[in-house]
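Continuing the series of single-chain predictions for the mutant panel. This is the parent chain; the variants come on the following pages.
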Amino acid sequence: MRTELTIVASADRSPRITSSGGLSGRLTGPDTVHMIGTAATPLGGDTMIIDVVVGAGARLCVRSVAATLALPSAVRRDSSSQWTFHVEDGGSLIFDPQPMIVASDAIHHSVTTLEFAASATIAFSERVQIGRAGEDAGRWCGTTNADIEGRPHLRHRVELGTGSVGHDVLSAPMALSSTLTYPDEREPATGRASVRMPLALGGSLSTSTGARLDALAWQS
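Parent structure:
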């Protein structure tokens, strides 16, 4: 199944939402949209394409009503999602959905592209868990590319789960929580499995890893 969701926020009206396939959006506040699953997706072979545009001076908060569950289909294990965000001058974006759960032996590839103005405000969060209770055969590959007015801001790639680079059955992390914050003037911070790193063009990337999402340290 091919799923498409587009959200466009403007300063002078409520966000506009168009969708097809297994994902939709509902306006739950003046500037808030909750993503809602309308069918089981992503299954093996599925593609999800999500485009979010925040116009000049607009504010948008995107959340979800439930976790996203990636599952294999009868013929394929792999699925993919493409997320594109564009935030114009003075725009504000909060993106904070429920986690992606990669269940059974599913494989999910996620590519996120963010383009935003230097005057924008960004809080972009991503959380992933490999497996439901007792499962550990899934894999997730995530790539995030962020640019500020055409200048490279972040190039980030993470793999989790069976078959990923560096995976081992004894101590490899199976959960990830990361947040891109812009602007952010806080100092760097580190923990046993957490780090907040300032970025050269401003802002920060905070990342925590571990066995389970509910046991992770700070994530912002």
